[in-house]
Recover the amino acids of this structure.
């Protein structure tokens, strides 16, 4: 049996509140944040098969719907985007995806806002 070693260099945290990630500029990928670190994040989303455009470099927005937290235009690299079978979504013509992103060069303001999110809006998974 093959062993899978953890390659992450930063501790992954889960959001305390429902947090969303949206791919710029058309927001064709909009989904729920699953986990996050100083170096990247993972989110899940639904989409139509033909609406997905692949690009290794992209920008995202991250926001919490009920408290005003908003971090726009975060530069990222797509590490993976996996299709996951989820029953009814296939029947409705939608695909369920899990997407991992690595942050690219962030501005000082973006780093500060990311640190704020990690310290006030995220926690260790239980």
């Amino acid at each position: 049996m093959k062993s899978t070693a953890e390659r992450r260099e930063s501790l992954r945290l889960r959001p305390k509140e429902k947090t969303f990630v949206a791919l710029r500029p058309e927001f064709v990928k909009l989904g729920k944040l699953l986990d996050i670190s100083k170096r990247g994040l993972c989110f899940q989303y639904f989409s139509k098969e033909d609406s997905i455009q692949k690009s290794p470099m992209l920008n995202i927005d991250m926001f919490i719907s009920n408290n005003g937290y908003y971090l726009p235009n975060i530069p990222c690299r797509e590490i993976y985007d996996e299709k996951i079978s989820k029953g009814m979504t296939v029947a409705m013509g939608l695909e369920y995806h899990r997407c991992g992103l690595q942050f690219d060069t962030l501005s000082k303001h973006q780093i500060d806002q990311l640190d704020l999110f990690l310290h006030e809006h995220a926690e260790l998974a239980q």
About this structure: The two ends are 27 Å apart (CA to CA). The beta strands are 14-15, 19-23, 30-36, 40-48, 57-64, 70-84, 94-103, 122-123. Residues 1-6 have pLDDT under 50 and may be disordered.
